[in-house]
Design brief:
Low-confidence stretches: none
Number of helices: 5
Number of strands: 14
Helix content: 10-25%
Strand order of the largest sheet: 1-2-5-9-8-7-6
CATH architecture of the largest domain: 2-Layer Sandwich
Order of helices and strands: HEHEEEEHEEEEHHEEEEE
Distance between the termini: 36 Å
Shape: globular
Structural class: alpha+beta
CATH superfamily of the largest domain: Bira Bifunctional Protein, Domain 2
């Protein structure tokens, strides 16, 4: 069931009118495809592209995302927030929370900023990029992967975790509905998502190492999230773009 074919008709039939999902069998990157449509003026808020296979999937900090055909849920969607752009740093965190809530059956948690973990193993990641006057969010979830198909050793999948009763079609429908609820409340001025994120965070309260893109490393205890989505350490340092390693 986890590797059942993607079905655009089944997906769209169970979604609110806000979303319009297009299924493609093969693409280099749903993220690149959707950003191109946005910049050409050919995309609207609520457009979604989901692929059975990506040849050049993208993750945070210029990383790639690879998955055998049919083994992962790989999609990107476009939104146009009403809130001031200074608050947009929370949008990737809202997306991460939405993934974790959708995967609550396997006790998923959010590692700052938006990796999704099960017992410290990564099951999902996402990327968010500004495009025109909105944001394109790309999400990858390891669904039907077996151990020998995992992209990294410290990864897992729904199949490995024993969650076998859901298809990628249902998973996408549930996730988009959850994100829409969280995003709409936030976009209308509510900050309740802060407490939700804190409650699902695998990072807050942890001793961490911060690995910056320039090679610098800083240690500390993660204590909070700022209004713009930054990770705040106990010594007052605000972390915007970096890798976080949980220390045990």
């Amino acid at each position: 069931m986890l590797r059942a074919p993607l079905d655009s008709r089944a997906i769209n039939a169970n979604l609110a009118q806000y979303w319009r999902v297009s299924v493609v069998e093969l693409t280099a990157s749903t993220q690149s495809d959707l950003i191109e449509l946005v910049t050409q003026g050919r995309a609207q808020a609520g457009d979604v592209i989901v692929a059975d296979f990506q040849s050049s999937g993208r993750g945070r900090l210029t990383r790639t995302f690879e998955a055998p055909p049919g083994s992962a849920l790989l999609f990107s969607f476009y939104i146009k927030p009403s809130r001031d752009s200074s608050d947009w740093g929370w949008i990737p965190l809202i997306a991460g929370v939405s993934v974790a809530q959708t995967l609550s059956e396997v006790n998923a948690r959010v590692k700052w900023p938006n990796d999704i973990l099960i017992n410290e193993k990564k099951i999902s990641g996402l990327i968010a990029q500004i495009a025109d006057d909105g944001i394109v969010i790309g999400i990858g979830i390891n669904v039907g992967m077996q151990v020998n198909e995992l992209p990294i050793l410290q990864a897992t999948s729904l199949a490995i975790e024993g969650s076998l009763r859901i298809s990628r079609n249902e998973l996408l429908t549930n996730l988009l509905a959850t994100f829409e609820k969280n995003f709409t409340q936030w976009d209308q001025g509510s900050d309740e998502i802060w407490a939700v994120y804190a409650g699902m965070s695998a990072t807050l309260g942890q001793s961490v190492e911060v690995h910056y893109p320039d090679g610098k490393v800083h240690g500390g205890t993660a204590v909070s999230i700022s209004a713009s989505g930054e990770l705040i350490l106990a010594d007052g340092v605000h972390v915007l773009a970096a890798d976080i390693i949980h220390l045990r």
